[in-house]
Amino acid sequence: MSLHNEILELQQNNPAFVELTLEDISVDPAVPINLTGKTVFVSVKKRTDYKIDDTEALITSKITVHTTPLSGITTWTLTAAQTLIPLGHYKADVRIYTGATDYGNSFTFYVDIVPIVTTRLI
Q1: Which of 27, 59, 103, 112 has its CA 20 to 30 A from that of 85?
Q2: How far apart (Å, rounded) are the C-alpha atoms in residues 61 and 42?
Q3: How many domains does the chain have?
Q4: Which DSSP state fits 14?
C-alpha cells in the first residue's frame, strides 16, 4: 500500500499490520526505495503538532527488518496499546535513515482512528 497523501483507517485498541511500499516520488514514474540496511521511522501526531521532533507524537515506530527491501516494501506493526489513542484524524509521516544519514520524508499521510466495528465474546 502506497500511502502518499492517503488516509489509513486503524481500529482503536486493535493490533494492525500495514504493508507500506516506499517510493521515490521525486521522479516520474515513482521508483521503489531500496530499504536494504535502512531504518524506517513512522510517526503519528495530532494535526496541530508542528514540532520537528516526536516528543508529542501519539504513535512512534522503528522498523529495521523489511518485508521486501529491494522493492521498498516494509511492514508497520502496531500493537493494540499503540492504537489506544482518542478517535480522530491525525497526520503521519515516514522517515528513512542509513546510520546518521536522513533521507527525509518519503511521504506523509493521514491516520483515522475509528471504533471497532464488532466485538464478540464467543
Answers
A1: 103
A2: 5
A3: 1
A4: -
83 or 25, higher pLDDT: 83
Q: Model pTM?
A: 0.86
Whether residue 6 is predicted with pLDDT greater than 90 in this model: the reply is no
> Is the pLDDT reported for residue 25 higher than 80?
no
Q: Which residue has the cell 500495514?
A: 18
Look up residue 25 and give its three cell numbers: 516520488
Calculate the alpha carbon distances from 40 to 15, 16, 35, 54, 80 in Å. Answer: 19, 17, 8, 14, 20
**Grid coordinates belonging to 121:** 465474546
CA distance 68 to 104: 20
Hey, how many other C-beta atoms are within 10 angstroms of the C-beta on 95? 15
Residue 121 in any domain: the answer is: no
Work out whether the CA dihedral 67, 109, 111, 84 comes out positive or negative: positive
Q: What is the pLDDT of residues 48-69, one digit of tens each?
A: 999 988 999 999 999 999 999 9
Which residue has cell 493521514?
110
Q: Is residue 119 part of a domain?
A: no
